[in-house]
Design goal:
Elements: H1 2-17, E1 21-26, E2 34-35, E3 42-43, H2 45-57, E4 60-65, H3 82-88, E5 94-95, H4 103-106, E6 110-111, E7 116-125, H5 144-167, H6 190-201, H7 213-242, E8 250-251, H8 256-261, E9 266-268, H9 275-278, H10 282-291, H11 302-312, E10 316-321, H12 322-331, E11 335-347, E12 350-351, H13 354-362, H14 369-376, E13 390-391, H15 392-398, H16 410-441, E14 444-447, E15 453-456, H17 460-469
Parallel strand pairs: 1-4, 1-5, 8-13, 9-10
Antiparallel strand pairs: 2-3, 5-12, 6-12, 7-10, 7-11, 14-15
Helix pairs in contact: 5-6, 5-7, 5-16, 7-16
């Protein structure tokens, strides 16, 4: 008896669709349903699924796109609009689109087994590998003000050494030329003094060192300053080289939770979509309120969100259904999809009759859903996995180095300032003592053999033999 009932049921199902033309309501939305250019002709993922089912069940169909583009919402009176309204009113046999299966919809219509699985993800601007500016890294250990100060003090020290050489009684410039056997009289002219400063900064050798106490003290403090600066430079340069960002593009975030922690990139959803608010995850609830705190973050259609991501170039991210984001990212390499899959959903074909849905579900295994997914969601951009990208929190951990400023190097500059002040004071004292000594010894008046008076500038000891001879 049971066998007879099963056979009768199967015959009823076959008779129900055999050679029948089914009315299909759908929504124009790429890549599910798109116009071909010919009147009444369509292409897309939905068309390919219907073609496979029609071949397996021997039926034909005609598609009528829903004019208002609404999937179906139930009002307070219990009436459905959109595609759901077409099914409930029996004006259509099938609703074939990316129609999400929900408990409310299953109460009034039947659904086939899923033809598509989706979830919500994030569409972002695709970052590029940050350029490495070559030798610019050699200037990064010091801040700009330190480099300026270093050039200024080099000029000051060089000029002071030239001044000390010019006026100090014990410097190289005061050696009589016949006694200058090493050609050192010009060791600290302005040009040579600046060159001396440069060679010491680079830790190179030099011919002569200053002879005067002031010049030697200034040089000692200068070399101590150079030692501090070179040590700090090499240590910080090593930090910059170690912490250099790998040759990977940097994403502002990779997950919804990371997106909630940052404020550099604005984000939003479609104005009517409230799946973030329905979530049990408090982070997603906060994303909902943050995204709606600025009305400019909301968009009406997926295409509008996609265009905003492109035009903002890294300053905006659009939260949308994953299959829509994948479709945009597969055709435009300037964007990409990130984020874990949240709020998973199933899309199926809605039927006005449960028997029809049962028949279509039984032949769903003949539909190459995987191949159709690859056909209509091709990866034309050869997108790299997310592991090939860095996000900003990871980069922050990789780059602890920062340029040293004048406050960090204040001890070295104070030490050099001390050397300048003391060196100048020692020069003034040396010049003062030399003049005082010369004034005290003064010129000696001597008589010549012809009785004329003459002035000599020698000391009494140097002129005594001459006086005796006279």
């Amino acid at each position: 008896m049971r066998a007879v009932l099963c056979v009768c049921l199967c015959l009823d199902i076959v008779i129900f669709t055999w050679g029948k033309e089914l009315k299909v309501t759908s929504i124009l939305r790429p890549p599910f349903l798109m116009k071909t250019g010919s009147p009444g002709q369509y292409k897309g993922y939905t068309v390919d699924v219907l073609d496979a089912l029609a071949e397996a069940n021997n039926f034909t169909y005609s598609i009528t796109p829903e004019q208002d583009g609404v999937y179906g919402v139930k009002d307070d009176k219990g009436n459905w609009n959109g595609m759901m309204g077409q099914l409930v009113s029996k004006k259509a046999d099938l609703a074939a689109a990316d129609l999400t299966v929900t408990d409310a919809r299953k109460m009034d219509v039947s659904f086939t087994s899923p033809v598509f699985h989706s979830s919500n993800r994030i569409l972002v601007w695709r970052p590029q590998v940050p350029p490495h500016n070559g030798l610019v890294v050699l200037f990064q250990p010091f801040s700009g003000d330190v480099w300026v100060m270093l050039m200024v003090v080099c000029m000051i020290v060089g000029i002071l050494l030239a001044i000390i050489n010019r006026y100090s009684p014990s410097e190289w410039s005061k050696i009589p030329e016949p006694e200058d056997k090493t050609n050192s009289r010009d060791s600290f002219t302005v040009n040579n003094a600046l060159f001396f400063v440069h060679t010491t900064v680079c830790w190179q050798g030099f011919k002569e060192a200053p002879r005067s106490p002031g010049g030697r003290f200034l040089t000692s403090m200068w070399m101590s300053f150079v030692l501090f600066m070179i040590t700090a430079y090499i240590a910080n340069l090593a930090s910059f080289l170690i912490a250099r960002t790998p040759d990977k593009p940097i994403l502002p975030f990779k997950t919804f939770h990371q997106m909630e922690l940052q404020s550099d990139v604005a984000y939003g959803t479609k104005s009517w979509d409230n799946f973030l608010q329905r979530s049990n995850d408090p982070v997603l609830n906060r994303l909902h309120f943050i995204s709606r705190s600025d009305p400019d973050n909301l968009f009406e259609t997926d295409e509008e969100g996609f265009e905003r991501v492109k035009s903002y170039q890294g300053k905006f991210a659009a939260i949308m259904e994953g299959h829509v984001a994948d479709y945009f990212a597969g055709r435009d390499c300037s964007v990409m999809v990130v984020g874990e899959r949240i709020d998973p959903t199933e899309q199926a074909i809605g039927c006005s009759d449960a028997t029809l849905c049962s028949e279509l579900s039984s032949s769903m295994n003949k539909v190459p859903l995987k191949d159709l997914r690859q056909k209509w969601w091709p990866n034309n951009c050869n997108s790299e996995p997310l592991s090939e990208f860095l996000n900003k929190p990871e980069v922050t951990l990789l780059t602890p180095a920062r340029p040293l400023n004048t406050i960090d190097l204040s001890i070295a500059f104070i030490l050099l300032l001390l050397g300048i002040i003391v060196g100048v004071i020692m020069l003034l004292v040396e010049v003062y003592l030399a003049r005082k000594k010369a004034k005290k010894e003064g010129p000696i008046k001597l008589k010549t053999t012809n009785g004329d008076n003459a002035l000599t500038e020698g000391t009494e000891e140097e002129k005594a033999p001459i006086a005796e001879e006279c």
